[in-house]
Amino acid sequence: MKEFQLIEKYFQGRGPLRKDVVLGIGDDCALLKPAIRKSIAISCDTLVENTHFFPDMPAQALGYKALAVNLSDLAAMGAEPAWMTLALTLPEVDEAWIKDFSEGFFEAADYYSIALVGGDTTCGPKSITITVQGLVPEGAALTRQGAKNGDWIYVTGTLGDSALGLDIIRGAVDVRPEYRQALITRHYHPTPRVLAGQSLRNIATSAIDISDGLLSDIAHVLKASNCGAEIEINDLPMSQGLKDCVSEEQARHYALCGGEDYELLFTVPESQKGALHMALTQAGVRFTCIGQIRSGKKLKLTLNGAPFEASFTGFEHFK
Description:
The protein is α+β, with helices and mostly antiparallel strands and 319 residues long.
């Protein structure tokens, strides 16, 4: 199958229809007509075989996850997903694989109402590059800078499940049968907190999505906001599956630095705690307070109020 036949069969004309897409796939450029008085949030992410995913990862799951991890960046900014481009590099044309990949990809696209408006296909080592664009009211975007001394630190959902799911896939750990599939699903099908991010506009003072692990990602917020923080280990939200399948020490390790949770970490001043509770309760999103922003520039971990020394760190692309 030739390149343009592949695009036409598996990607062109699929996904949600948006009135702000004047011209989509099929020309040299897409033409978009964004809503007035809104800023455009843009994020790009690449997934490379053997670095970000195993060769035997199900294509449907890869298609879904490739888009979901990009949507998580839009969620962290409080943006509404709008448009995207997809650059797909493949060593050969495997129609069965492409069919399954596109099914997972458009499952996420349809659910989050984001339109595919262009991209590229080429021959080479397998990789997926997606650029997403979203809309956010002017002046309402969430950023990593803005956390202030005294703000409370929250996270959505639970932490550590995805990393444990990856270790199950790798064969590095054996878990109780009743939790196995749910933990693998948390790795293959993360939930970008798009609605939660939009609900946090004008409430949160800073936000970031947790992709490289809690310790790594909160460090980005502290650096951007020029502040420190204190986190209580016992307050970290963990699923029953995580707690039942590994030791307490291992569970803390997964929750602190496992990575690929794609939950939101955000800060909220005391005066907005009531608004936060109402907004995320209405959005149907679980959230947990795990600590507080402090003066200075250090991150302090405590366990039952006593200092806790972590012997591990989050993921880094280049060591």
